[in-house]
Amino acid sequence: MRFSTEGLSLRYPGVDGWALDQVSISVPDGSLYAVLGPNGSGKSTLMKTLLGVLSPERGRAVVDDTPVLDWTRRELARVVGVVSQAETIAFPLTVRELVAMGRYPHMGALRGESSHDKGAIAHALDQCDAGHLTKRDVTTLSGGELQRVRIARALAQEPRALVLDEPTASLDIRHEMAILESLRAWADDGMTVVVVTHGLDQAARFADRMLLLSRGRVAAEGRPEEVLRAETLEEVYGWPIAVEHDSITESMRVTPLRSRDGATQAPPRR
After folding, report:
1. 219, 217, 221: which is closest to 208 by C-alpha?
2. How far is residue 65's CA from residue 50's CA, in Å, rounded to a whole number?
3. Are 21 and 7 in contact (CB under 8 A)?
4. What is the pLDDT of residues 207-227, one digit of tens each?
């Protein structure tokens, strides 16, 4: 499944400036694509526009050669699993009940679970190391446990693509790495995975391509070694940064440095 945008521009009512300004990207089928940038750079806005939740003022978002706004919500839910940054669960549910909601786009309102549905739910729980949590009330879960369960719900849809906003937030090292390795494996198996993340090192290690946003604009786009350049990152994040090759992970390593003058802002560029 392919995602792309063409000159995407969007403003929020009552807010000066563009939340997205002429953003054009192309996410290849079966790739892991990371979206990076400081707070307020437009990452979550891009995801919402890519999924048709927000309508751009200019440009368009396209899913598999069809403008996303031409997809019905049910059709899109059958092929794209989404894990948002946060959600409020308003009523008691067991973990299994929450994950089973991922099957709703396929089941309809009246049909009960088939053996295939049950298998998809169990498989998703196992892949996210949440099989032992099935009978727990979701309100009793830790933040990390709930995050894994939410990813399992999206995976239970058996989607062709996953779009995840900060999927490793609240996870410990073990589960963070397990989820990232799973995302990498799913992309290797042909699923398209789009991940919003603040983890520059993790993105460098696992992503095929990445997008770096700054104040709603594309600062850089391409392979990790093309995007993660010290001069680019310093300009975007406003802080001195070192980038080097990590011989252990065989990927780029990004290290924030101490400000040379002890100030809270990076020194002027020369």
Report:
1. 221
2. 13
3. no
4. 999 999 999 999 999 999 999
